Amino acid sequence: MSTDLNIQDINGNTPLHVAVDQDSYDAIKFLLESGVNTRILNNKKQAVLHLATELNKVPILLILLQYKDMIDILQGGEHGRTALHIAAIYDFDECARILVKDFGASLKRACSNGYYPIHDAAKNASSKTMEVFLQFGESIGCSREEMISLFAAEGNLPLHSAVHGGDFKAVELCLKSGAKISTQQFDLSTPVHLACSQGALDIVRLMFNLQPSEKLVCLNSTDAQKMTPLHCAAMFDRCDVVQYLIDEGADLNVLDKEKRSPLLLAASRGGWKTVLTLVRNKANILLKDINRRNILHLLVLNGGGHIKEFAEEVAAVFLGENLINLGACINLKNNSNESPLHLAARYGRYNTVKKLLSSERGSFIINESDGEGLTPLHIASKEGHLRVVQLLLNRGSLLHRDHNGRNPLHLAAMSGYTNTMVHLNSVHSHLLDQVDKDGNTALHLATMENKPKAICLLLSLNCKLLYNCMDLSAIDYAIYYKFPEAALAMVTHNTRGTEIMSLRSDKHPCVTLALVASMPRVFESVQDKSITKANCKKDSKSFYIKYNFSCLQCLRIYPEINEKTGDATAISKPIPLPALNVLLHTELERNLPKFLLEKVDKMEIYEYPNECKGKLGFLDLVIRKWFCNPFTEDAIDMVLESNGNDVFTDEIDKLKRKLNEIQIHLDHQFMFLRLIVHKMDIKTETDERDEGTSSNKELQFAPHLSKTFSPLVRHRFLTTKQTNKSKSSL
């Protein structure tokens, strides 16, 4: 009886997984000799090699090395991480040494998030594993400078990751290996910016001491917000770092993108210690920001307190202080890779978040990500906890992206929390037009989730109307998913509605036609906005109603229709009559005199309901609408006054309605006839004739038929005549 040695239990573990977990060396050898599959992943996305590395089972790795041919050293687990990534994260230097030297693991294999093993080692303060990587790189001819210069997905170098991890030895190792402290990420921030934001004074000192030639360059470098390292330290009230940067020669009065000096920025964030430090160092107190507010304005806006909030703060401090003082670990994570800070941010526990950030490890856990790449700032923004978002930003939370490439503003827009969106944009305005991995902006994501208030806010903030990787705009998604609320918020926006109506894409070449076809009620609202009334009394003669027809323009559709209807034989289905009407209409416009066309071809029409009609009745109405200037009284006086009720005009209107009904019936009958001809595959004389030939030669045999009978009858007559002629010749 054969036994399946690769069978998995409820946790997805094979017998080999269990043997590795229980240190059953003999069982491991027996299973490997029996040819079991070593690539099977359990529920935690771990192969046998991943499990042995995570548990730091060096003897088991040596046993697996004896069966090296059965092991896939490059196999990825959770988030595409190889066993070498896992060794780097947990700083298992002996495991890392075996993997790179004996198994041949690659140091240039990135995970799904774009990080190399050396980035994970630096980010998690794994200094021993970093040394193993650098030594092995030198042994195979790869210099330390090359190893330390590998860029991650967001433009991070290992030095950025090491500073983010907060490990002094890892930062020192990167610097001694050739990493430059002036290297900028994609957002133009340097490692010095990051260290100043975190308040890591010892790391800032280390970077300046080891690379004094780069010190002035870093002090004067600016990020995407035009902020210097001094701005970053002042923003998060790092008064000791601020004093050190001033002593090293930082400019006290440099301005950022919002024309804020470090003093104004600290005052706007309530950083009172930093404000006092900057004033003592003679910072300019007369400067004003982009809103013309000086330091007095900002101090008044951020001063004062509330007794209730103070009582809650004291209670939270004593409730949380005992656990932390008793030795509780604040960075342990659950099965979803969430720390206590993640959960506190998810449920809006402001005081708990504040206490966790005030602990010794607070500055190092603030930017940790969970299993989906979400930091506490991402989670708080997604759930709409504004106070927690403000606290995290004030304490130095960075604007990382999750595994989908989305920033906190994207998540706030998806959930529709407008207050959170306003605050994020006020602090980091460059987030507004950033895109995720699919090229979607915050406007795209808010539309996909049908959040009209978020859409209105983004449009009011003057966000760009971009196209994503599928060449679709936000209005395309509103039409595709048939979200009337989202579509209505966009097309009826006070300042951006016209711009949105003019968007074009392959899916919806004309927004007007798409709205008419899928959401006619929304287009009715667009038309309602096109009707405006004069700002005067309704019974006044100067009162008018203006009708604007700009929303009905579909200029790019006409060439396409013209191209399709130019050759009727090239289309397999019947040609709709509206297309023919368009052709006749455009041909008529070409033949009309230009001055006459300018009189009638108007984008706007003014209707004066209180004016008296002239004696000419209906003709007078036409003349007034199309040929008179509504703003001159002379033009109005040209037509004589008459009674309001004109019998002749009423009769003409009735006749027009009857003619329209007859025309509609004729159109339907003509369409049905074309369908019948198409289904029966009936060909006319023109269809049978080759290109370039003339019909004059055929018509000379029967000239009397040219005007009497249809082309089909003439064709049959000519065919019969030719047949009789051939028989007589025989």
UniProtKB/TrEMBL annotation:
The keyword Metal-binding does not apply. Pfam families: Ank, Ank_2. ANK repeats lie at residues 11-43, 154-186, 225-257, 336-358, 372-404. GO terms for cellular component: cilium. The keyword Repeat applies. GO terms for biological process: protein localization to ciliary inversin compartment. Keywords: ANK repeat, Receptor, Repeat. Gene3D superfamilies: Ankyrin repeat-containing domain (1.25.40.20). PANTHER family: ANK_REP_REGION DOMAIN-CONTAINING PROTEIN, MOLTING PROTEIN MLT-4. This is Transient receptor potential cation channel subfamily A member 1. It comes from Diaphorina citri (Asian citrus psyllid). The lineage of its organism: Eukaryota, Metazoa, Ecdysozoa, Arthropoda, Hexapoda.
